[in-house]
Design the sequence.
């Protein structure tokens, strides 16, 4: 795996993730926890943003103070539909980020992703991109999303999820070894339906209460 997989072990994230995994956790609580964790993930994924100094005036003195170097805001790309949960949390911390959406559904028989929607900022080629989806399971959707995003030539791409399966990481890193994966946990395996075990169930259903 090398340095490509960044496992975020922060105790607050781990504790909140355990609450999310519990079958009895309500939709409202699940949504709230995902938002909280996503703010913490946003903190980690933006750790290497470049800074520059700007001369400002405090009430007491002038100061050369650090501000973000790039005048082009980050783009957060949500893989629909469950990516919305991470997007909402990240926007709390980075409210001026730009947003893109990619709609992919998994064909339930083949597990192959089919694109049905794609909308990103027109000048994405000048921006850094963070793609978000809570579950890196087979990796098919993530691989397809990154492939599609690469065709728009952004400055950089990172992928952020909550949970990853070893199979998904293996698949993703083989095809996109240049894209770092940020995840809060690497679980045991996939089941025969492509669900992460032990996992947390269907992230979209739990987030939106559709089951
Ligand atoms: N998508 C989910 O929502 N959950 C899984 O376990 C795998 C893919």
Sequence:
């Amino acid at each position: 795996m090398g340095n490509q997989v960044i496992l975020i072990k922060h105790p607050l994230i781990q504790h909140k993730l355990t609450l999310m995994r519990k079958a009895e956790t309500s939709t409202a609580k699940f949504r709230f926890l995902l938002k909280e964790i996503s703010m913490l993930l946003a903190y980690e994924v933006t750790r290497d943003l470049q800074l520059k100094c700007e001369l400002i005036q405090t009430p007491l003195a002038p100061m050369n103070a650090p501000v973000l170097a790039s005048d082009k805001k980050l783009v957060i790309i949500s893989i629909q539909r469950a990516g919305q949960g991470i997007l909402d949390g990240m926007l709390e911390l980075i409210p001026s980020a730009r947003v893109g959406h990619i709609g992919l559904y998994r064909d339930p028989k083949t597990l192959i992703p089919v694109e049905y929607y794609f909308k990103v900022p027109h000048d994405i080629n000048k921006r850094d991109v963070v793609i978000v989806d809570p579950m890196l399971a087979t990796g098919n959707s993530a691989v397809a999303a990154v492939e599609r995003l690469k065709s728009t030539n952004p400055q950089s791409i990172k992928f952020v999820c909550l949970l990853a399966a070893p199979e998904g990481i293996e698949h993703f890193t083989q095809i996109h070894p240049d894209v770092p994966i940020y995840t809060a946990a690497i679980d045991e395996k996939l089941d025969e339906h492509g669900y992460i075990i032990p996992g947390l169930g269907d992230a979209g259903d739990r987030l939106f209460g559709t089951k």
